Amino acid sequence: MVKEDIQELEQKLLTLLKKEAFKRGKFTLSSGKTSNYYLDGRVITLTPEGAYLAASIILEMTKADNVTAIGGPTLGADPITGAVACMAHIKNIPIKAFIVRKSAKEHGAGRQIEGPRLEKGAKVVLVDDVATTGKALLEAKEALAGEGISVDRAIVIVDRKEGAAQNLQKSGLKLESIFTINDFGL
Q1: What is the pLDDT of residues 125-137, one digit of tens each?
Q2: Domains plus CATH for the chain?
Q3: How far apart are CA 78 and CA 140, in angstroms?
């Protein structure tokens, strides 16, 4: 994919986000913070076009890294992870997908990390739709560490620029975003 293609995909994704996912009002975020705007990335990543755009961009961002697996905290990462897995298969890129539950299931296999087993030493990238404080990504990193898997990179669709990058950096995670809240005029 050439550079112009990615820029075009990013512009289409930003247009969708602005039109469908960005809302003004009074909201309480998962971090507990209150905000006068809300970005619900799932509104976009659960559509065919949004899933395609997000997955294509993330695959491009990770293509030079020999990534073994991509996944992240449920629920924001779920549609992204599935879309990346599908696009990876189409492009013959061997990437596993996984989802990190908030806690291990109390039934069945009792797993917190769902999907194909990840080997120790796997090159893993975390994904999510939106980052505010980075709490969900940090919890996912800790769950992976509990399985002997280290991760040093996270990619989100939108960074709200409210401390996530700094909080993740303290734990050895580099945060990358396709967009920041500045792209929405804030």
Answers
A1: 999 999 999 999 9
A2: 3-184 (3.40.50.2020)
A3: 13
